[in-house]
Design a protein that fits this description.
22% strand; 20 strands; four-stranded mixed sheet; seven-stranded mixed sheet; single chain; alpha+beta
Length: 520
């Protein structure tokens, strides 16, 4: 009898639990239908009190290989490394240089070297002192190749230490805003473990706030690391608020709808989409022809119709979020009158069919070109087709050729093209030398004035001087048009409601200033 009563008690308790759960599910369904689960950046009235929120978060990683920010192939692991490792310099939201492991620096007058005084009182997570030896070790590793930062080392000719807190880095050519180039993470010399200088140390499957951090103890105590098998599971866990944040490399921001009190932090990356011209080809050796095509591009339309506003239009090769605030909005829409003026000013005339032609050096040239594009990029294919259509309408005979990635790269490298739609990540120091220097670029372009301006930029340190010389440089490039910038891609980090503030992504890093992230 006692056993029968006990069994009835258990059944009754289970029924009550199921009833409560059913009410909760129904209520959640009602809330979702009423839209209360899609608030963005607002505090929910039903959110738990701060006293009930534990001072930790969980982050997810996919494709876990190694916690080495220089060599990991996993984007999510690189994000996690932002809690552990630090660079000499960082960039804030406007691209200004921020000292991290560096305390101060001076640049040589010729722009071919930088002397860095390292921050004092910095220790690695194992308690040893941070020194110039660690910086040299990291630079030599990057210069050896096979890292995520090989491009950063391209102009570095060598590095040496005058003492334990001073490093001198020499360059093979003048480098503008050299400090902003040194934004790669620094590793401990000869380290075999996961040892950094950042706000959190690796603690066997989790990250723990480092008490000895020079910037002050982090506001979050613990960051739990969850290894996730694939992107689908990652998104599922993020949507369930199990993991604390996700980047736009995981989320399709053209269709993603933030849930609950998720917060979206957008930033403009240094990934620039552009139209490149072969300045050695019969048609585009003519500057007015390049100017005409640049003016026919409707950058505003491409931003909105092709990238669904997940890009920011720009007519110059400078991140639109840059502190320099150079004018980037004068020609974002197609300028049809300017197109005609440019062509006529260059001696181009329309035949009886409306197709432009020009006589040069005793021979007749018709405006007939191909645009090559990587077939695996749907957006760039659409851009090529959009520009092609407008060029044909204007009397510039044009066709689009879709190439495999290998074919595309080969044709660009060998100059086997008239025009192409490309995408490149600009360096954090805004150095466009690889794009326009007479020493070599993808467009066959050279100009002594541009080379001189690039050299001048390398020795400047005051904002006003940099701004003035950059304006001169970009005006010159806009006039010569070896390439026509179209837009810069937007990226995002999305956090769950538990993270209150402190998240400030920049063009240099998605995860930065993590000691300021706050849960409560």
């Amino acid at each position: 009898m006692r056993q029968m009563k006990k069994l009835l008690s258990i059944i009754t308790a289970c029924f009550l639990v199921l009833s409560l759960c059913s009410c909760s599910v129904i209520e959640s369904f009602k809330n979702a239908m009423n839209g209360s689960e899609t608030q963005t950046g607002a505090e929910s009235s039903t959110e738990n009190d701060d006293s009930e929120i534990t001072n930790d978060i969980t982050v997810g990683v996919t494709g876990l290989d190694e916690y080495n920010p220089l060599t990991t192939e996993s984007e999510s692991v690189r994000d996690i490394c932002g809690f552990i490792f630090e660079p000499l310099f960082g960039l804030d939201e406007s691209g200004r240089t921020v000292s991290m492991l560096a305390a101060s620096y001076t640049v040589a007058n010729n722009g071919k070297s930088i002397t860095i005084n390292l921050r004092q009182g910095v220790t690695w997570h194992d308690g040893t002192e941070f020194s110039s030896r660690d910086v040299l070790y990291t630079i030599n590793m990057i210069r050896g190749g096979g890292t995520n930062y090989d491009k950063f080392a391209e102009p570095i000719a060598g590095a040496s230490a005058t003492d334990s807190s001073t490093v001198v880095i020499s360059f093979s050519r003048p480098v503008p805003c050299a400090a902003a180039l040194l934004t790669f993470p620094i590793l401990k010399s000869g380290t075999a473990g996961i040892v950094g200088t950042g706000p959190f140390y690796y603690d066997g499957g989790k990250l723990t706030a480092y008490e000895g951090y020079y910037g002050g103890r982090a506001k979050i105590d613990t960051i739990n690391i969850m290894e996730i098998p694939d992107r689908e599971k990652y998104l599922s866990l993020f949507n369930a608020s199990v993991i604390a944040f996700a980047g736009s490399d995981m989320l399709d921001m053209t269709s993603y709808m933030p849930k609950g009190n998720a917060k979206v932090y957008d930033y403009v990356s240094n990934d620039m989409v552009f139209a490149g011209f072969n300045t050695k080809s019969p048609v585009f050796s003519d500057k007015p022809a390049r100017q005409a095509v640049s003016q026919i591009i409707d950058r505003d339309r491409i931003e909105k119709r092709i990238y669904y506003s997940r890009a920011q239009a720009s007519e110059i090769a400078l991140n639109p979020a840059s502190w320099m605030e150079l004018e980037t909005k004068s020609k974002l829409k197609s300028n049809d009158a300017g197109v005609q003026d440019a062509l006529k000013g260059g001696g181009w005339t329309a035949d009886e069919n409306g197709t432009y032609k020009k006589e040069t050096e005793g021979r007749l040239i018709y405006f007939s070109v191909n645009i090559i594009v990587n077939s695996e990029s749907d957006e760039r294919v659409k851009i090529a087709e959009e520009i092609c259509g407008k060029m044909n309408t204007a009397g510039m005979k044009t066709a689009v050729i879709k190439c495999t990635p290998e074919q595309f790269d080969y044709r660009v490298q060998t100059g086997d093209y008239d025009m192409f739609i490309g995408q490149t990540e600009l360096m954090p120091n805004n150095d466009i030398t690889p794009l326009v220097s007479s020493d070599g670029n993808s467009f066959g372009y050279s100009d002594e004035t541009v080379d001189t301006i690039l050299s001048q930029l390398s020795a400047l340190q005051y904002d006003e001087e940099v701004q003035a010389v950059c304006r001169e440089l970009y005006n010159k490039i806009a006039e010569d048009v070896p390439f026509a910038p179209i837009c810069f891609m937007k990226k995002s980090i999305v956090t769950i409601a538990k993270i209150k503030d402190g998240v400030q992504p920049s063009m240099e890093a998605l995860v930065r200033d993590t000691h300021n992230w706050r849960v409560k």
